[in-house]
Amino acid sequence: MQNSNIMYNIEQLYDLSGLKEIHQNDEAFIRIIKEAFINHTPADATKMLNACSAGDWAQVGFLAHKLKSSIDILKIASIKDDIRTIELNARQQKQLTSLPELVQKVNIVIAMTAKQMNE
Questions:
Q1: Which of 43, 49, 93, 106 has its CA 20 to 30 A from that of 70?
Q2: For 76, what's the count of Cα atoms within 13 Å in the CB-facing half-sphere?
Q3: Which residues of the chain, if any, have pLDDT below 50?
Q4: Any idea what DSSP says for residue 11?
């Protein structure tokens, strides 16, 4: 990826304000959501990266769809559009040459988000 020197951890990558508002600042619930993200989402992003490398576009589309809800719930704005592009293009098998860079970006941002949540 050409832009691998971009520092995604300079700012807060996610926003819990919507979850806190909906669940009346229920810290136990927020902790469960964060733990679920940390424990499962980076692994799914890595699976998507591996599927992309293998040219398994059906799996890439499936995993992008799965990741989309976590990205939306946690308001990870920097990859909101990217995950939709990945899902659509993988499922339609179009503009496939642009997908590896987008998939790698999503993988990096998700890993950095999980790291921030652990801090």
A1: 93
A2: 30
A3: 1-6, 8-9
A4: S
